[in-house]
Amino acid sequence: MAVSFSMSTVKIALYGGSFDPPHRGHVALARLAIDRLHLDRVLVAPVGLQPLKHDAATTSFEDRVAMARLAFARVPHIEVSHLDAPLPDHRPNYTIDTVLRLRPTLTTGDELFCLLGADSWLTIGNWYRASDLVMACGFIVGARPGFDLDHAAAALPKSITAIQMPSDKPGSLLLSLCDSSGHQSPLYLLTDLSEDVSATAVRAALSHHPVEEVDAVLDPKVASYIHEHNLYSVDM
Known about the structure:
Radius of gyration: 18 Å
Strand content: 15-25%
Structural class: alpha/beta
CATH superfamily: HUPs
Oligomer: single chain
Helix content: 25-40%
């Protein structure tokens, strides 16, 4: 008698970014995505060199990885990854290349998403091979107040169309993205992201009001790491 085994599929999200430093907003978005879309794994991947940012990250890749491990330590299903580590030739880390490296490691039927905030999504049309990227995986976008599906659709490359679909995930809206060949890819918009924090604002707070501001936006262990390693030129 033959015995057949069925391999369960998994939902994986690539969560890239500078994480300079990782703050409560980053963690809130990961938790919300895991909860709403029932993700099995989220790969938190600090990026070596951001293509759209002319200035390098304020802190080293190693420091940002270490802080990410501390910030996400208590979040289930999180794996801090070196997938987007600095490249040997110092080229920018393009998300399409990272996704295409990740794809062969997955099994047939696994669902792959990119997870990002609304501010990053608004720049998606300027990303390298943007049209290919939005077809290469699904997207999960955390929405700040006032950000809706019209804003999400307006940011798409011109070659991509978007159709609103009914979502079976509570607390989310769904767009079906489609290219000229008829290929489709989902974009989930998470509508109830309560944390509204930017790393730029965090760095500004650290440089001006480190004691008063840091506890509100950073995990205490991340704050301690910043203090111990004298990051962001702050004497805390």
